[in-house]
Amino acid sequence: MGKVAAGVAVGVAVAACAVAGVVVGRRVGSRRKWKRVVRVLEELEEACETPVGRLRQVVDAMAVEMHAGLASEGGSKLKMLLTFVDHLPTGSEIGTYYALDLGGTNFRVLRIQLGGRRSSILSQDVERQPIPQHLMTSTSEDLFDFIASTLKQFVEKEESGSEPSPVRTRELGFTFSFPVKQSSLRSGILIKWTKGFAIEDMVGKEVVELLEAALVRSGLDMRVALLVNDTVGTLALGRYHDADTVAAVIIGTGTNACYLERADAIIKCQGLLTTSGYMVVNMEWGNFWSSHLPRTSYDIDLDSESPNPNDQGFEKMISGMYLGDIVRRVILRISLESDIFGPVSSRLSIPFILQTPLLAAMHEDDSPELKEVAKILKETLEISEVSLKVRKLVVRICDVVTCRAARLAAAGIVGILKKIGRDGSGAGGTGGRNRSDVKMKRTVVAIEGGLYTSYTMFRKYLHEALNEILGDVAQHVILQVTEDGSGIGGALLAASYSSYSVDGVKLL
């Protein structure tokens, strides 16, 4: 019995050692896995760093590129397009004006009635209409006949029962958010289609001429007062509400900016004459690039796999179209290097499956167990049964990517302010820091887009960066949210450029 007992004891000891060895091995393996994960996270954090010194370099680079783009065509990645808008709404506009907003697979028609007092929009009517799929690849005549017919029905419905305006042609602001080479306030040639449109006979044609021909065919008495893009509309709406508005920025699915520039600073158009001495310049800032931008391997891969490689570099780092996909790429790399997410999900290889609203929902999940993170990982990426520790890791990745985007957007805004002398740098090159001896003007930037308005953490990081870069000057800079600048702004510009008014005052 003694020998048997001893044998059993030895067997138990061996088994215990084996179990302990397995446990220790698992712990060591787990530590190694997390070391790899931590290394990936640390590399991301380091590559995305945006200390204030770096942000100031981006500010300077933006201002330099703006100068270069104004000096010559092709002199900069920034196109710095002339809009021929040389005055903005004053608030004294009176009358009824229309807008057509075409910038995607839907278009909108608007009618506003202005009362002649700043911020006094007496009434506003809007109708949204989807564009039938076949018209997006048909002919220009088919597309604009459909739009003109819808516009005519809208006008007749909204004006039914109202007193007709004597001998007055209705006026329309046309917001057309596709690449256009503009040659005057009312003329612009379509360069190329985007957003699913492919109407071949319209490329290289005058956009306003095609619309006005359709209006004539429909029997609608309406004049197109001007052609603008959505950013210019946002600036017009901001200026209507606040006379200190000097720039506009859209930060949503895409991003762009425009601002009011001195006409004599637009060197590539020497002798340019404007009634105000200024002109609105459409920067097309999504294409901005500088070696000071903190680019990661994920950005490089995203760009190379995109339909427009080496294009829109700034946009790909800061806009809603791309942030979710950057996060997806980081999660995919971690999943390939460790099994903390379980077996590699095939969904992680689908571009843009993780859209930015989902990123925002995970980032701003304040539940103790991060239930929203778990839900999105499971339903969107088919990653389930992950620990709280892993969910916290995902939130951290979202935070790093979003923080970088917001801080770079802030640097871009300050770059505009620097170019027009509103950053407080003045003499001595203090970069806007604590210059109490400089009398600063109140400066308003109109801002629009869901990434800014709906994503709390993005907005918070942008404002923090603005304060860091500008110092005391930040108190003089207001970011003012506008709503529907692309639509209402177009109608306001129609009023501002009405053939029936002088300086916005109605004559008829």
UniProtKB/TrEMBL annotation:
It is an enzyme of class 2 (transferase). CDD domains: ASKHA_NBD_HK_plant. SUPFAM superfamilies: Actin-like ATPase domain (SSF53067). It comes from the Eukaryota. Its main location: mitochondrion. It is a single-pass membrane protein. Residues 41-240 form the Hexokinase N-terminal domain. Its EC number is 2.7.1.-. Pathway: Carbohydrate metabolism; hexose metabolism; Carbohydrate degradation; glycolysis; D-glyceraldehyde 3-phosphate and glycerone phosphate from D-glucose: step 1/4. It is found in: Mitochondrion outer membrane. This is Phosphotransferase.
